[in-house]
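Handoff note, outgoing to incoming analyst
You'll be picking up this chain. Sequence as last confirmed:
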Amino acid sequence: MKHNKITKLFNIKYPIIQGGMIWVSGYKLAAAVSNAGGLGLIGAGSMYPDVLREHIQKCKKATDKPFGVNIPLFYPDLDEILKIIIDEGVKIVFTSAGNPKLYTKYFQEHNIKVVHVVSSVKFALKSQEAGVDAIVAEGFEAGGHNGREETTTFTLIPMVKEKINIPLIAAGGIATGKGMLAAMVLGADGVQIGSRFVASEESSAHINFKNSVVETKDAGTDLTLKELIPVRLIKNKFYYQVQDLYLKKPNIEQLKELLGRARAKKGMFEGDLENGELEIGQVAGLIHEINSAKEIIAEIIDEFEKTKQSLC
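Most recent structure output, in case you need it:
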């Protein structure tokens, strides 16, 4: 594979970025992806500051390749997180769920490359105006936190590409080499993959959750809780409780009460498949086994190259 804007920006072999997912993306996964030629991300969204520092330090010992940290900008201890990022010499930060204008220049003043995740053309333009180094455009198919617009990845990518002139990364519904190739044909310079790495050996997800992902079929997920933070969930007992509550036309407080605290941790990290929040993308229907991150990347690249050659 030839070098392109993304591989040059991050100094990596393949334009594959692992999603920085809560309760899933610890240092073991990030280091494994980076060692395999992609860009691994530590997911700070589910980590206390001291835990994040520990994961960054362990990741530096586990790989000599570039890696980054994903930071949701609504994080309650954000000032402390930013200090840790600077102190530990992290060179790549992916931000999400907030205004990139607030911190982009601050990071760049410390020689940190900044990428912001968006779900619309409007916010892609705002991110470019904020001076970010690249954009992740994430479609409706994605798991975890998502946009309210319900724009699909393969519609969003060409629309964003028309409007921006900085590197573009596609996310949402991509787990295979064919999907990667399709995204790049539509204008992406690289891909960010989350769900496929949930079902990896190095993922910190509970084995129950990994197995649940492998067992999920094409209609097994749904985007819900848009009044709070939109999230795509596997249809389990908790999901159906949410749908039953919607029939009663709940207000925000009632939804928050049902969600409670640590619901995602309960499902994804602790393995409670009934009462936990199980965040995953629609592409789970294409995930059929648990492999190492190295095997996953090798399989994606092999399929990408073979498919590309078959179309020539």
